[in-house]
Amino acid sequence: IIFRLFSKKCKVSVIAKELGATVPEVFRNFERLVKADLIEKDTDGNYHLTTYGTSICNQIPSLSFVAAHKKYFKNHSFGDLPQKYIQRIGALEQSQHMKGFTKVMEQWKSIIESANEYIYGILFEEPLDLIEPIAKKAKKDVKINSIFSESVIVPKGRKQLIDKLDFNTLIKNGLVERKMRKDVKVGVFLSENEACVMFPTLDDETDISEIFHSQNQAFHEWCLDYFRYCWYGSEAFQESKLKE
């Protein structure tokens, strides 16, 4: 009843029909909700949510997201995520949980492939397999912005590969921009079309073997906002801090 009224005000008889219940039965529930100050009736006999009821409904996606992934959050935390993003965690509700390094890499490659405007990433690791596809996109004027942890895991052969792909020219032309943070716990990877987010384990270890992925607008907006928050709070990139 509450969710139905969240989308549109309605009469008791209409909701009773939708629920396949009797009018007296549904009316008793309406009375309970009125006494709880969750709903109220207007002069036309339609019921609608109160401000209190609307506020409760707006919090439910956050509870739904965490409840749907209880097993995951037994081993993961929100790390150093600012409170304002935890309060908006319900935006991640419409997403797919993906598990396994191979699946994650394939999804990241798909995000790169779908990008026509930008690719943004907060990275704990820089997989060698992603460097060349990202360089190819940058050469097609796709904006690449990356935030690296000072303790980022860098694969052997990275330096030779970025030299071969002429990353320095891409950086000079402003197509590739990089910044650095002392520590990275929560990661995101996104294009203008889709996004994914990764949370740390309970002992604050970074974990890219499990991600939440979605093309949902609210999910994407959350990831983009978080990336921008971190971007403007990051320091200048220092290649010397990266060790293979």
Morphology: elongated
In N-to-C order, the SSE pattern is HHHEEHHHEHEHEHHEEEEHE
Q: What's the tally of helices?
A: 11
Structural class: alpha+beta
**What is the average per-residue confidence, as pLDDT, rounded to a whole number?**
91
List how many beta strands DSSP finds. 10
Q: Which regions are unreliable across 5 or more consecutive residues at pLDDT < 50?
A: none
Question: In percent, how helical is the residue content?
Answer: 40-55%
Any idea what the radius of gyration is? 23 Å
User: Beta-strand level of the residues, as a percent range?
Assistant: 15-25%
Largest sheet: 8 strands, mixed
Instruction: Record the strand order, biggest sheet.
Output: 3-9-8-7-4-5-6-10
Roughly how many Å apart are the termini? 57 Å
Description:
There is one protein chain. This protein has 244 residues and is α+β, with helices and mostly antiparallel strands. 44% of the residues lie in helices and 21% in strands. It is built from 11 helices and 10 strands. The protein has helices spanning 2-7, 12-19, 23-35, 51-68, 70-73, 83-86, 101-114, 128-138, 158-164, 167-172, 217-232; strands spanning 39-41, 47-49, 96-99, 118-125, 143-153, 176-181, 187-191, 195-198, 210-214, 235-236. It has an 8-stranded mixed beta sheet, with helices on both faces. Helix 2 (12-19) packs across helix 3 and helix 7 runs parallel beside helix 8 (128-138). The longest helix is centred in the first third of the chain and has 18 residues, at 51-68. The model has no long low-confidence stretch (mean pLDDT 91).
